[in-house]
Amino acid sequence: MLSFSQPTLGDARQEWWRRALRLVLVGGAAVGLGGLCAQLGLLGPVLLVGLVGGIAVSAIVFGAPRLGFWATLVVAIVGLGVKRYVPVPMGLTVDVLLTLTWIGLVVPVAGRLDWHKANRPAVWGALLWMGYVTFQLLNPEAVSHLAWVYAMRGVGLHFALVVPLVLLLLDRRRDLDWFLTIWFVLSILGTLNGLRQKFIGLDPFEWQWLRSGAAVQHILFGKLRIFSFFSDAGQFGAAQGHVAVGAGIMTIGRDLSWRRRLFYGLVALCGVIGLFISGTRGAMAVPFFGGVTYLVLSKNWRAILLGVAAMAMAYGFFMYTSIGSSVYQIQRFRDALQRGSDTPSMQVRLRNQARLARYMKADPVRYAIGGGIGSVGSWGRRFSPGTWLAQFPPDSWYVRLWAETGTVGLGLYLGLWILLMGYGAVLVWRVEDPQLRQALIGLHAGIMGILMASYGNQVLGQLPTGILVYASLAYLSMAPRLADDPPSSQSEEADPTPSTITSA
Predict the structure, then answer these.
(1) Could you give the C-alpha distances from 234 to 81, 239, 277, in angstroms and in order?
(2) Banded model confidence at residue 429, pLDDT cuts 50, 70, 90
(3) What is the arithmetic mean of pLDDT over 266-290?
(4) Local structure of 219: helix, strand or coil
(5) How far apart are CA 229 and CA 281, in angstroms?
(6) Fewest CB within a 10 Å sphere: which of 42, 99, 133, 157?
(7) Of 81, 223, 253, 169, the residue nearest 481 (C-alpha)
(8) What pLDDT does 1 receive?
(9) d(Cα 399, Cα 414) in Å, to the nearest integer?
């Protein structure tokens, strides 16, 4: 006998909140658009189209917060490339999407949301770090508070928003599957776009971007460093090395269908190709340290021996042969490995770090808490031009954090990551499901690779790597919960949808 449940009071309140939010959005937009059209003339209709689209996106996100996060992920990965064609602030778009997703998650069901899901060390670590970043508003060394508003997003805000959001909203196996699928598919497209740039050439918009100042970093000795639809070649190389580690580890997992293994293998291959064509030597740290992490976490002697053998062969290839030296990208990697710290670029970085050490030690306050968030690099040149830190090229995520947050900030940051990754390793070791465990090992190894590579680049503070790392950390934190979540009842052979990617 069929029975139909009656609407509960909570359901009624949820629907009321959704209707109220939509009413406020529509009413506010109508008033604002009227004023804009009156003031801007022909520009008004253009803004009208954009704002109507924004309202539509907002309504969708409020009704389905999961879609909001997936949209955030897509924009984070491809948005900076799209910006070369459409002058839209993609970084701000990511922030808006994250905010809308949080509103869509919390407001309708705040009283019934299981906040205990977010009671994990990763969340408390992210909030502690964001607290220190907020404390930097009181830093007497800071020249511009507006610089803090812009720079703190990559330094701490995304960390504090993404980790608890994934734990609260995307805590099922199929959510992990969707995360991997979107990431992997877009990474394949990234490599294909990079190959288009290398073998077919750049389009007029990309050439204009290079002429606007990016050519200094991307055309070296007459050779183009491929950047695809990422912010720069360094980010492209690190991101592709990141996905190569994760997908490569998942490829050798047990009990995979041939289609799934082929997919993972293709993703890993594309990641390796993208890494090499980027010409980014610092990105070599991602697969190396990611591979070492995998060997430690696998606790499989056969895998350890094979991994050591593979690393030895790669080392011998670059150190003791000249094979492929006519290929610019291969020669850059070979030169970096053979010469080590004797390369001109590394010598410049070491001299700069020595200069920074002298500058920091000259003032006890500055040495302790730094020169303020946003005081270094492009934000420093924009908001505090003429200052010493604004002219300093950090070249490293950790050097930048040292300069901006001081010895206390850098120590806190590194300590948090050491504890979180150690705790993540313990959780992974306890997972018995072989396929889920392999996926989590891939995520852990990818994070470790990025953490090590961030010494030579600022990739962890940039899109999309930061979003991917924080989401991966959240999934490591919920390893026990994912292990208890039953996999899809459909077989991989019968259903190739994302819900079967990590299903055992």
Answers:
(1) 14, 8, 11
(2) very high
(3) 91
(4) strand
(5) 19
(6) 42
(7) 169
(8) 38
(9) 12
